[in-house]
Specification:
Elements lengths: L14 H6 L5 H22 L1 H8 L1 E6 L6 E5 L5 E5 L1 H28 L3 H4 L2 H18 L7 E2 L2 E2 L4 H14 L7 H4 L3 H8 L13 H4 L6 H20 L3 H14 L4 H10 L16 H13 L10 H10 L14 E8 L6 H13 L3 E8 L3 E4 L13 H8 L16 E6 L14 E5 L15 E4 L10
Parallel strand pairs: 1-3, 6-7, 6-9, 9-10, 10-11
Antiparallel strand pairs: 2-3, 4-5, 7-8
Helix pairs in contact: 2-3, 2-4, 2-15, 3-4, 3-11, 4-6, 4-11, 6-9, 11-12
This protein binds zinc ion (ZN).
The site of zinc ion has 5 residues, from helix 4.
Amino acid sequence: MSGTRHRHVVDLADRRALAAWRPADPAVVAEAGRLKDAALLDFGMTESAVASWLYAKCRHQVASTAVDTAAVVASGDGSVLLVYNPDFFVALGLTGVKFVLFHEARHLVHRHLFVEPELRADPVFTMAAEVAINHVALVRLRRESLPLLHGEPVGVDPVAVHERYRADLAGQGLPALDYAEFVETDLGVYTELKRMKQPPVPVALCVHLARDVPADQESVDAVVSSVLLNSLLAARRGHGGAESELLDLMGRTDGTSEQATRRWGLLGAGALRGTTASTGVVDWWQRWLLDVLASRLRPGERLVYPRKRGAVLAALGHDPMLSRRGPEREKVLVIALDTSGSIPSSVVEWMTGLVGRVEGVRAHWLSFDGVVMPFRPGERVLGGGGTSFQNVVDYVEGRLEVAGEVFEEQADAVVVLTDGYAPPVTPAEPDKWIWLITEGGNDWPDAHHPPMACHRVRPVTRTATP
Ligand SMILES: [Zn+2]
């Protein structure tokens, strides 16, 4: 089988080789870069928070004729880059470029949510993905039809596939779903196509169908879960576009596959619908913390596109476009762990994972009992005797030296994970403080004046039953 695989002319993870490969006319490269930037700007402002975040994570965006269309390459070290054929983009025009970039972003989300090997191995599933993704693209981008390339439609037409499906089932004397029911969920399309006597075979219209684009599952999972989390946080703080996109995406995928449900559950996305995750791996306190953090870490949401330099830098294989994104300055988050009591390690792990996935946040980790000790995640935290919240407050507010140094940053939010047993404190800015009280602890901050955000936490048990 390996003998039949397409070999790329250059290493798709090598961006300098990419940019150098048969470079197109500089005017074409410049125009393609302009179209790409304009498309991403539209996504960011209105049309797709998910696509916008995804491409914001592609620090390198390279025009190269080494690909025929456009693809996101995950190079294995966790970084992702966008490669696009400049001639293809110019021939498509802006509306076509937007369609293709949205399609590509959605492919990665689809790949992250549906990982079952039996699905992946089935070419009908590949076709179903094309149908579902293009249906969503048409709806979200408010299009009547597929983009045209030299007068020909690009990609799989979901309406045409539905027509073939109806004809096929009529031939078998079986009832068929109407179009709206047929495309209702991503897996539903697959189920219905499987009922056909002759399911349609995917043809090479999408870069994924034609070629082996390097994109290991681990890198895809890391980037997509980060994209979904950031979109979720945007939705929770009132971005209507992000909310409608995520609710629609959840509606199409959550509950349709065990893996998809699990992944939504891990994100705590149920809070968006006011429901509890059926997996039991995400507890209410986690969703509560996501929500509180989102409000404390509200970013400036500025996307800056250096339009003039973008195309030139892309051609050189340098960071092309998003010179700055997200918050106007990084938000500072302090996480203080009380080592005098017993903090479940699963809670600490979950916090570490969460903080690592939130964009534009610089985290400072402290352990404390009677004294405050900064540490890095992964380091061993030693507990001593006594507990003082006042020392934590004094340190965070810059009054207490630790190892000869004072904390010089302005914290935007402080999360304290503790059993609560120590004299109560009143920080200078109580609304920045978030108290997570372990089981059996004392939740005094709840009744404190002024009140502070406070929630009881339970250890997260990954083996929890539904
Ligand atoms: Zn595709």
